[in-house]
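Run log, item B.
One chain of 214 residues. Sequence copied directly from the ordering sheet:
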Amino acid sequence: MAFELGLVFSPKLDLALGVLSLIAVSGMGFFFYWEVLRPYAAKTRPSQMDPPEEGDTYEIVVPESTRFYKFSVGQVYGDIPTLCKSIQDDHLVFVLKKGKDTEDYDILINRSGPAIMKPPRMQHFAKMESQEKLESHEIIGQTASFRISDKIIKDRMTQYFEIGITSNFFVNKLGKERMKFIFSVQKIHPGLSTRSRDKKGLYSFGKERSSEED
């Protein structure tokens, strides 16, 4: 018994446990910094972020543990932070609402700033209401497009970010058919002026070169 107690409370074992505890705490601290503090710090300091580029895509699969998922486009915050002075935070918010026990979705689109949209198979853009709705089957293999900026002139925009949403089905590792949504930055017209970055890290649109047709 004396030998067992000596083994349990030996200095070497205490040292080993102390080292393991230190490694565990350090690992948790690094994980918290990398996954929580670093992204938050970057978003609160836009000067450390890069603006999106035309062609950027964002793939979303709604987790099976929930029926709702939000995807937003904003100035500094959101899934697509534009870093553009003409865009508001939560300028465009997509709410994906999954049907019960199905892969059918309602897509609610809310705007907090000027926006125009072109539904699938339509040729021209039109002013958005404060909330619009699409159904997921409408965008399978098709794209709905949205333009956002700080002003609309005669139902048109001369400077804008154009965001697209489309969807398709895929089979996951469990052999279950799921729907994937793909958001994309289709256009930044006429581009961002790289020389216009202010102290807050925000850009202005570049100089207009010509009128853009729908």
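Observations after the first pass:
- Residues 2-44 form one domain.
- The first strand starts at residue 57 and ends at 60.
Flagged for discussion on Thursday.
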